[in-house]
């Protein structure tokens, strides 16, 4: 498979630093504590880098959902694990690697809202087709078109997640 670099390791590092500042500035008037929900597996690298750049108490929480097979969504979200602690009254930041069709996030938000958090916002390393999926990503990293991307947590059939950059398949 021919993989072309699209976003370098240095560009990612720089943008994640900025995003950490944007998120800190946004929340600091509202709360001194944030629950960051990592959507496994793809968000693992972005999550780990981002939380270190947020300058307030960040409580960790993890969920695992998946819906892709190869390059295509199956349209069915499989939940493998879900949040452990109650989110009632908490400010919640969902951390994603990519928002593509938006289906995964719509599903997650619908169920997290039932726990009555004080707020729910989204940070995503990459947002594709930003105006098409109807999900408001308050903290987008990079806006991309319709590439199938991999690396920095993103996979193609579970492979290539450990590439330090974001690439696409030629
Ligand atoms: O906006 P959507 O079209 O729903 O696509 C985005 C979702 O797809 C990927 O997850 P995937 O199902 O590949 O699971 P993974 O995180 O384990 O790779 C990605 O990590 C997002 O969660
Ligand atoms: O472009 C992508 N790459 C990897 N996983 C994905 N899940 C949704 N879109 C993508």
UniProtKB/TrEMBL annotation:
Supply the InterPro entries for this chain: HGPRT, Hxn_phspho_trans, PRTase-like, PRTase_dom
Q: In which pathway does it act?
A: Purine metabolism; IMP biosynthesis via salvage pathway; IMP from hypoxanthine: step 1/1
Which reactions appear under catalytic activity for this entry? Answer: IMP + diphosphate = hypoxanthine + 5-phospho-alpha-D-ribose 1-diphosphate; GMP + diphosphate = guanine + 5-phospho-alpha-D-ribose 1-diphosphate
Q: Which UniProt keywords apply?
A: Cytoplasm, Glycosyltransferase, Magnesium, Metal-binding, Nucleotide-binding, Purine salvage, Transferase
Quick one: where is this thing mainly located? cytoplasm
List each copy of the Phosphoribosyltransferase domain by range: 8-133
Statement: the UniProt record of this protein carries the keyword Transferase: yes
**Record bears the keyword Zinc:** no
Q: Where in the cell is it found?
A: Cytoplasm
Q: Which GO terms describe its molecular function?
A: hypoxanthine phosphoribosyltransferase activity; magnesium ion binding; nucleotide binding
The UniProt entry's GO biological process terms, in alphabetical order, are:
GMP salvage; guanine salvage; hypoxanthine metabolic process; IMP salvage; purine ribonucleoside salvage
Pfam families, per database record = Pribosyltran (PF00156)
Family indicated by similarity: Belongs to the purine/pyrimidine phosphoribosyltransferase family.
Q: What is this protein called?
A: Hypoxanthine phosphoribosyltransferase
Q: Which organism is it from?
A: Oceanotoga teriensis
């Amino acid at each position: 498979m021919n993989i072309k670099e699209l976003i370098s390791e240095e560009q990612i590092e720089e943008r994640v630093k900025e995003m950490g500042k944007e998120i800190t500035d946004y929340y600091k008037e509202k709360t001194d504590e944030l629950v960051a929900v990592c959507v496994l597996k793809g968000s693992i690298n972005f999550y780990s880098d981002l939380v270190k750049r947020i300058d307030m108490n960040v409580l960790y929480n993890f969920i695992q959902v998946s819906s892709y097979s190869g390059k295509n969504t199956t349209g069915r979200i499989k939940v493998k694990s879900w949040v452990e602690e109650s989110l009632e009254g908490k400010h919640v930041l969902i951390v994603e690697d990519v928002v593509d069709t938006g289906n995964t996030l719509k599903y997650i938000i619908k169920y997290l809202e039932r726990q009555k958090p004080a707020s729910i916002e989204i940070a995503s390393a990459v947002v594709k087709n930003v105006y098409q999926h109807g999900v408001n990503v308050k903290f987008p990293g990079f806006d991309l078109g319709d590439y199938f991307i991999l690396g920095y947590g993103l996979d193609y059939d579970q492979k290539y997640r450990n590439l330090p950059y974001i690439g696409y398949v030629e």
